[in-house]
Design a protein that fits this description.
Layout (H helix, E strand, L loop, with lengths): L8 E10 L2 E8 L11 E5 L12 E2 L4 E2 L4 E2 L4 E2 L4 E2 L4 E2 L4 E2 L4 E2 L4 E2 L4 E2 L4 E2 L4 E2 L4 E2 L4 E2 L4 E2 L4 E2 L4 E2 L4 E2 L4 E2 L4 E2 L4 E2 L4 E2 L4 E2 L4 E2 L4 E2 L4 E2 L4 E2 L4 E3 L3 E4 L2 E2 L4 E3 L1 E5 L17 E3 L1 E4 L4 E4 L10
Parallel strand pairs: 3-5, 4-7, 5-8, 6-9, 7-10, 8-11, 9-12, 10-13, 11-14, 12-15, 13-16, 14-17, 15-18, 16-19, 17-20, 18-21, 19-22, 20-23, 21-24, 22-25, 23-26, 24-27, 25-28, 26-29, 27-30, 28-31, 29-32, 30-33, 31-34, 32-35, 35-36
Antiparallel strand pairs: 1-2, 2-3, 37-38
């Protein structure tokens, strides 16, 4: 805190024990933002938890403790928890029973609410919203105007951004990316180095993995699996099928299907057009 900044709150004698920490109720000592002098706030362990600069504040029964920091114009409401070494900054909001902990960072104009959890080294920023029972953790990041809700999970080094949505029981993990206006929902997974973007939708119990890409208005549903270097695009709809394509290492290399779920889509690499094409006369049986 700068030496020239007037303190904006004080620690009251009212205390409580929470998770092995002694927390103090806070009270504003001057007007700032939407807070008025004398207004009682939530709970912090020590002054380093809540900056005296900016309009940041902790409301109600919300708690900030350990080495966590709330700064800038960030707000923590209701029964939300911010702890460990987490940081909530800029104009971010943590609301209801949400938790931000570990080394997680919530910033920008983002919102974390409901019973959502942001932890590990995860980041939520921009105008992103994480709510419900969703979780963002490890080194994952959610930003832009992305929305994560339901019981969705974003983890490892995955990224969800722009106008993308992941909800229900959808999962995005490893180094996968979901962006544009793409949707991942139901019990669908996107993982590996896969990318789902444009207006694509992945749902049902389907998965997109490895180095695959699904984009444009394509739909992957049912028990479908999109593997290897597959590309599904335009308005193609894949249901209860495996699409397995490999980019060739030489002109004679062709893709191989390794697993069957329902109908198999066999692809070969056409060296004239330099694209994958469906095999003629495919009857749904494995080929090698």
């Amino acid at each position: 805190m700068s030496e020239n900044v007037e303190k904006k709150y004080e620690l009251l004698e009212e205390t409580m024990e929470w998770g092995g920490h002694i927390l103090h109720r806070i009270r504003a000592t001057r007007d700032f933002g939407r807070v008025h002098k004398g207004q009682v706030g939530g709970w912090i362990e020590k002054e380093s938890n809540l900056s005296h600069e900016g309009d940041c504040w902790v409301y109600g029964e919300a708690k900030v403790y350990s080495h966590a920091v709330v700064e800038g114009n960030a707000l923590v409401f209701n029964e939300a928890l911010v702890y460990n070494s987490a940081k909530v900054s800029e104009s971010a909001t943590v609301h209801e029973r949400a938790e931000v902990y570990g080394l997680a960072v919530v910033r920008g104009n983002s919102w974390v609410l409901g019973c959502a959890k942001i932890y590990g080294g995860a980041e939520v920023y921009g105008d992103a919203v994480v709510l419900g029972y969703a979780q963002v953790f490890n080194k994952a990041s959610v930003y832009g105007i992305a929305q994560i809700y339901g019981k969705a999970q974003i983890f490892d080094y995955a990224r969800v951004y722009e106008n993308a949505m992941v909800y229900d029981g959808g999962k995005v993990f490893d180094r996968a990316e979901v962006f544009g206006s793409a949707r991942v929902f139901d019990e669908a997974y996107v993982y590996g180095n896969a990318k789902v973007f444009g207006g694509a939708e992945i749902y049902g119990k389907s998965s997109v993995s490895d180095n695959s890409m699904v984009f444009d208005a394509a739909e992957i549903c049912g028990d479908s699996r999109i593997l290897y270097d597959s590309r599904v695009y335009f308005n193609e709809k894949i249901k209860d099928r495996v699409v397995a394509m490999r980019w060739p290492r030489d002109a004679e290399c062709a893709s191989k299907v390794v697993e069957t779920i329902g109908q198999v889509v066999l692809q070969r690499f056409d060296t004239d057009s330099m694209t994958f094409v469906k095999e003629e006369g495919n009857n749904g049986e494995n080929e090698s």
